[in-house]
Amino acid sequence: MPTIAVDKAALFKELGRDYTTEEFDELCFEFGIELDEDTSQSTKPEDQAQPPQLKIEIPANRYDMLCFEGIALNLKVFLEKEKLPKWQVTPPKDGQLQELHIKPETAQVRELCSGVILRGIKFTQARYDSFIALQDKLHQNLARQRTLVSIGTHDLDTVKGPFTYEALKPEEIEFIPLNQTKKMNGKQLMEFYEKDKHLGRYLHIIRDSPLYPVIYDANRTVMSLPPIINGDHSKITLDTKNVFIEITATDKTKVEIVNHMLIAMFAGYAESIEAIKIISPHNNESRESPDLSPRKWKAEVDYLNNVTGLDLSPEEISKLLAKMGHDVSPSKTDKNILDVSVPITRADILHQADIMEDYSIAYGFNKLPRVYPNKTAAVSAPLPINKLADIVRLESASAGWTEVMPLILCSHEENFEWLNRVDDGKTAIKLANPKTAEYQLVRTSLLPGLLKTINSNKHHSVPMKIFEVSDVGFKDESKERKSRNERHFAAAIMGKTSGFEQVHGLLDRLMLMLRSKFMTREDGLKNAALEGYWIEEVEDKTFLPGHAASVKINLAGKNHTIGVFGILHPSVLHKFELPYPVSTVEFNLEVFL
Amino acid sequence: MTGTRGPVPVPLETQGQNLTQDVLDLLDTKETLQSNEDFPAVPQRDIKAALDRLASRSMVEYKTLDKEQVNLTPESEGIVANGSHEFKVWKAVKEAGKIAIKELPSIVGKESASVGQGNAFKNKWIKKDGTDLVLVATEEPEDSMQKLLKGIQESQTVSDAKQLNDLKKKRLVTVTKVITYTVTKGPKYAKEMPVEHTDLTADLLASGAWETANFKPYNFAALGAQQDAGALHPLMKVRQEFRNIFFSQGFVEMPTGHFVDSGFWNFDALFVPQQHPARDMQDTFFVSDPPTADKPRADPDSERQMDQMEASSQRLFSTGDKREKKPRDFEKYWNDVKKVHEDGAFGSIGYRYKFKDEETLRLVLRTHTTAVSTWALHRLAEDPRPARYFSIDRVFRNETVDATHLAEFHQIEGVIADFGLTLGGLQRFLGDFFANMGLENLRFKPAYNPYTEPSMEIFGYHKGLKRWIEIGNSGMFRPEMLEPMGLPKDMRVYGFGLSLERPTMMKYGVSNIRELLGHKVDLSWIKEQPAVRFDKE
C-alpha cells in the first residue's frame, strides 16, 4: 500500500478544523485509509526539523488519493463539506485543438499515447512538488514501474504543435535530457543512465527494442523519450502557465485512468482543461482526449440493501453515496434503480458491488446491523489426511518425542548432496526466483529439516528425539499442477549411541497404533492379502551400510514400500555438522488413508 | 540423587566429625545447648545443617539468635596488652624524666607519639617545656582507654551506641553478625538417628516392615523428577484450538495438499489482475521446474476427499428428492474468468486489459490458501447450497526474512456460502469467532483486496498491549470471482483469514517469528510451552 505524506496544517485547513491525532485516526479508520504516523509526535530530529506531516496509507486501488489534493478532496466530500467537482473540457479560444499524431511504428514498442493540456495553471512550490510526487506515485503503483504507463509534462509555451509520437532507431534520436547539458542520442543515453539510481531501473523497458518511442514537436524538438526521460527544452518550472501532459502506455485502460487522475488532482489550480486531438488511424485510436464524462451506472436498491442488511430509501442511499463522490438520483422509471454517475476519480468502481461497499462505508461499517448468518446447520469434518496425521503426532509425542516444524523450502544440497542422494531431475519442484540459496526447492524428504533442527540445538542434552508430520512435494506429470504433496512422518534421534533401536521401536509403536501387524518378510511376500508390515535390509547411501532397512507394508491386497530407517552415514553427519550418531525413520502416511 | 530408592544411611559425618551425633550426645547430658559455647569451632553452616537434619525429624528443637558481636582490632588488642598510646608516652617521659619532642617517635613509635602526645596533654599527664616534654602527673594515672577496651574484649558488646560509633571510627573495634542456636530436645528425641527409608518399596510392603519403618521426610520445597516427556509444537497446539472453533461451527476442512498452484487458481480465478504487484517476482515464488500447469481440469484426489467429508451432511440433509446437479465445465469457467478480466462480464466492466493465457499457466508456490477456497467454491456451483469451509496450511511469500516475516507461514482461512448473507452478518460471525480467543468488541476498517468487496480489516482491542491491533482480513467475495464459477447471483460468500503465527506469537510472547517456525526453534522452548486454552486466556 502506498504511503503519502501530507502537510498536517495544510490538510486541516482544507478540512476546516483541527483534529487531534486520535480524532484524525478515527476519521481515517472509518473512511478506509490508515494514519501511519503523525510526525508531530515523533522524537526524531529529522521529523522535528520540518512542519508536522501526516503519513497516510492509501488502499492500492485508490489512485485518486495518491497526493495531498486527492486526500483533501475525498475527505472533504466524505465530511460533506463540499461536492466533488464536475470536470469538463473547455475548447481553446481559437477553436483549434492541439494535435498529436501517432505513427504506426510505435506499435512495435509502446503503442499508446494520450494527453491533455492544463491552461493557466498557478504553481506554488508545494503544488509543484505535489505534481511531481503524484506522477512518481502513479509510475510506481498503477503504472507498474512505468512498464504500463508513463507520464511526461511540458511547458506548452516552449514547444509548438502539432506533436508527433514516433518510433525511431536509438541513434537517430538526439536531444539534451532533462537537467543535463550535453546532447546525446538514444544509445548514448542508455549508457549514460546505466548507473543512475533513479532512472537505471526503467532502461530495460525499451533498451533492447530496435526502435525507441519519442515525442517531437512541430520543430522536431525532442520533448520526451518515454518511458525514460523528458527533454530539457520543454521542462516545466514554477512559472509555467500552460502544461502539456503526454502519457504513453501499453495498457489502454490505464492510460486514461492516469490522465483522469492528473486532471482531477490538478485542474483545480488551472483555468481550464483543454482536450488534444489524437490522430492514430492505424489502430483505431483517433479521438479527442480526455473524455471526462462520468460513467453511468444503474445500481439496484434491493441489492444494496440486501447485502448491507439495511433498509434505506433510494433518496437516503443517494445522499450517502454522494459522500463517496457519486452523483446519484433515483431512477424516474424504476423504483428499484438508482442512476449513479461515477466520477473520473473512481476508476476502482467495476461492479455495483463497489457501489454497495461505498454505501456501507458512508453508512459506517461499524454501525451496520450485526445479525448472525446461521441459516442452516452445517456438519463439520476434518480432512482425512489431517486426522490421520494428528493420530501419528499424538502417538509420537506420547512416546516421548518432540514435535518440530522446520521449513518446507530448502537448498538443493540439503535435499540431495548432503544426504548422498542424487537429483534425477524428475523428482523435486524447483523455484525460479528465490532470494537466497536457502530456498531453492520444495523438500522431497523431511530429513533435511530434522537434521538442521538438531544442528541448531546442539546445546540441548542428548539423546535428542524429534519428529515431524508434514508434507513434502514431488513433480507429477499426471496432475494439472504437474506436482503433488505427500504427507510424511519422520523422526530423528541423536545421542552417544546410534539410537537405531529407538527409531525402530517408534516405527513399531506407530504401526501398532495404525493397526498394522508385524510379520516376517516371507509371510508378507507369500500372501499380499495378509495385512501387516515387515522390514528388510536395504542399500541406501544416506545410511551406514548394513544399518538401513526399508519399511514394507501389505494393505488392501497390495504391497507398498513406504519408507526407510537406519543409522545416518557419517558423511551425512559431517555435512549437517552433527557431533554424535543419528538414526532416522521416514515413511509415507498416505497409504493409511 | 534422582532415582535412589530404599533405605539409605543419613549422612551424619561432616569433615570427620559426627556433628549430628555429638548434638544428640550432648543433649543427653544437658538441657540446653548454646551452639557458640558448645561447638565454638564448628562453622555456622555445618551446625545448621546438623540441626535441620534433626529438627526435620522432630528430634530437636532450636531457636536462632542473631546478634552483633564487637571485636577488637589488632591496634586495640595492643592497647589492652601494653596500655594506651598516651599511657605509653607518659611512661616514657616518666622513665627518661625529660624527652625532646623530636625524639618521642623514635622512643614510643610513630603512631603512639602522634596520638598519645595530644591525649597526654589533654589528660594533663605531661606538659611542654621549651622543646622538651616533662611530667605533670608524677603518680601512675588510670589508663581508662585500656580499661574500656579490656571490658569490650570480655563482653564483646558496647551498650552506648555513640561510643561504639566513635570506636568504629577510630578503627579500634569492628562489628560482626553472629548467629547462634539454642537447642533443646524435640518430641522424638533419641540418643541415636534411626535408619530411614526414602521411599515405600515393594520389599517394605512384602515384609510388612513399612509399619515400623522410619521414612525420611519429603522435601516439599523442591521440584519433582524430570519427565522424559515428548511434546507437541506450540504452533500446532494453537492450530488445534482454531480447528476446534471451526468444527464447533460446522466447517468442513478443505483439501490443501498441494503447495504448487497455477496462476489461474492462485490469481486469475480470484479476479487478481495479471499486472497486480502480488504477481511480481518480488512477492511470489515462481516454479521453474515443472515449467507450466495444465488448464484447469477435474482433480479426482481432492474430489474424493471432499465427497468423503461431506458424506455425513449429504445423508443428514437428504430429502429423498433428487437434486439437480450441474456438472462443472472447466473450459467455460476458464473462458468466463478471462472474459471478466479482459472485457468485463456479470455486471462488471472488468479490468479491460489483454489477458495472457501463459500467465494463467505459470506455476507458483501458493501465496494463499484462498486458491483452494476458489476450487471448493467452483465445486459448490454444481449444486449451490449453504456451505462452510476452512483450512489451516502453509503458504509462501518471496519476502526478505526478518523478525516478523518468513518466506513461509500458515494461513487460517474460513469461507461461508449462503443465500442472502449480509455484511453485518460477517461482522457478527467474526465477533463470535474471535470472542473464542478472548478478543471482544471488534471494529472493522474498510480495506482493499482484489477478490473481496466489501473488504474489511478486523481490529481487536488487545488488553495486554492496550491498543487496537489488526487481527485479520475479511470480506465478501466479488461477483467477478463467484459468477464465472456458475454460482447464482444471490448466493453470497464470506471469506476471512489470518495467519496462525501472529496469534501464536501473541499468546506465547514471542517477538521473532524465527523463534517459532523453522529449524532454529529451541527444543527446550517447544517442550516448556504450556497448553493453549483460548477460553482461559
From TrEMBL, chain A:
Origin, by domain of life?
Eukaryota
What name does UniProt use for this protein? Phenylalanyl-tRNA synthetase
What organism is the protein native to?
Answer: Macroventuria anomochaeta
Automatic annotation (TrEMBL), chain B:
Question: What is the protein name given in its UniProt record?
Answer: Uncharacterized protein
Organism (species): Macroventuria anomochaeta
